[in-house]
UniProtKB/TrEMBL annotation:
Superkingdom per UniProt: Bacteria
Signal sequence range: none
Family (UniProt): Belongs to the LysR transcriptional regulatory family.
Species of the source: [Clostridium] clostridioforme CAG:132
Keywords, sorted A to Z: DNA-binding, Transcription, Transcription regulation
Molecular function in Gene Ontology: DNA-binding transcription factor activity; transcription cis-regulatory region binding
InterPro entries, A to Z: LysR_HTH_N, LysR_subst-bd, WH-like_DNA-bd_sf, WH_DNA-bd_sf
Chain ranges of the HTH lysR-type domain: 1-60
Regions crossing the membrane: none
Protein name: HTH lysR-type domain-containing protein
């Protein structure tokens, strides 16, 4: 489009009014300036848009075609402005969040409940996915926010810590007692027990694998599970020894349903928080960040 928007706006207002003086009053510019803008637009398009008479101006057939298109365009702009005003007035926006199933259920949901109570008109989209995918989509700015374990490499992302978590191994007292009866009290639990871990595509599994490698722990029998919830449920029925997030089973530990396996060196604690791209200027993201603080 070679012509600037102001020329089309002047053309549109003149066509609506059918009179240059009326359009001049509507646009708060002089009649000569309007006439000059129309002439310039006609010259650049290479055709006449109006026929002129003492009673005013009338669209040519070519002008009628252009008027229909400019009317659609300016109506669309008006609708856009009204939508933005509505968003501002009612705190409406679209917040896109990436999060794993586990962090969504146990950490994000309480935040979301309070946030939605305060901003009931906000549209929220949840992308349930692995942490690696969330970080990648944050870098590409395809989502606004990610609830993740603090990445070792920030990747130009800002990070707001929410809580620390402790990975640990748990099982039922019965499973542990039966294992000792079968293998002896001095048995190595990681060599004789059924060790239940998240599958290797999970970032938590990478964290635990690094710990086991650093401490020369080599499980002989591994059961891989796709979700933390399944790990917890399998541990509760006595299927084996599960590596879980301690904070998620604290109630079971307190009640004695599960017991924690002592580790000579604990697994390194991790920090969970909200990550976002600093250059993202979306109003919904700004609203959520203000809510956090």
């Amino acid at each position: 489009m070679e012509q600037n928007l102001s020329q089309y706006k002047i053309f549109y207002e003149v066509a609506k009014a059918g009179n240059i003086s009326k359009a001049a009053k509507e646009l708060y510019i002089s009649q000569p300036a309007i006439s000059k803008a129309i002439s310039k637009l006609e010259d650049s398009l290479g055709l006449s848009l109006f026929t002129r008479s003492s009673r005013g101006v009338q669209l040519t057939s070519e002008g009628e075609i252009l008027f229909e298109h400019t009317r659609e365009a300016f109506d669309a702009l008006d609708r856009g402005e009204q939508e933005l005003k509505r968003i501002q007035e009612f705190d409406i926006g679209h917040l896109r969040i990436g999060v794993s199933n586990t962090l969504c259920k146990y950490i994000l949901l309480p935040y979301l409940k309070t946030f939605i109570d305060q901003y009931p008109h906000m549209k929220v989209t949840i992308e349930s996915q692995a942490t690696a995918q969330t970080l990648g989509r944050l870098e590409q700015q395809k989502i606004d926010l990610g609830l993740v374990a603090e990445p070792s490499v920030r990747r130009d992302l800002a990070f707001i810590p929410v809580m620390d978590i402790q990975d640990t191994f748990v099982t039922t007292p019965n499973y542990l007692e039966n294992l000792y009866l079968r293998e002896g009290r001095d048995t190595s639990l990681f060599e004789t027990g059924n060790i239940m871990l998240l599958d290797t595509s999970n970032m938590t599994r990478h964290h635990v694998d690094e710990y086991m490698e650093e401490n020369n722990i080599c499980p002989h029998q591994i059961l891989e599970v796709t979700t933390m919830d399944l790990l917890i449920e399998f541990a509760k029925i006595g299927l084996g020894i599960a590596c879980v997030i301690k904070e998620l089973v604290q109630k079971e530990l307190d009640s004695g349903l599960l017991v924690e396996i002592p580790l000579y060196i604990p697994i390194h604690r991790r920090t969970i928080g909200f990550a976002y791209h600093p250059s993202n200027q979306a109003m919904a993201l700004k609203t959520f960040l203000e809510f956090l603080y």
